[in-house]
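WARN no homologs supplied; continuing
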Amino acid sequence: MAEKEGKSPAGVKYFRLSEIEQQNSFKSTWIIIQHKVYDVTKFLEEHPGGEEVLREQAGGDATESFEDVGHSRDAREMSVAMVIGELHPDDRHKIATPEETPVTTLKDNASGWINWLLPVLAAVIVTLMYRIYISE
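OK structure emitted
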């Protein structure tokens, strides 16, 4: 397929990653979120976090940044109006997807008696040291 965008049979407009990367100026600012291409040029001045936030992500994948902020439902609804197409399926693998780091939890294998034995033992040692100090 050519370097320019194309349309799918379903009518979705596809953009190549190289074309999206070029749209990183004040005249034209595009970002990718969840493989959808957004033209946020007109929204730069209105963005509550400041235009710098969008400019940093211009021409690239902003999915992680968008999700990390925890945008409201209203913000997500507003963003629908800015969708101009999708990232071409052949270019989707080029976007680095962050590896999910599994959350590890420690198993509570320690018996119940260890949970109270250590504080009791520490209290006994402190008491003995106090008695020896006072008796001198």
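The chain has a mean pLDDT of 81.
OK
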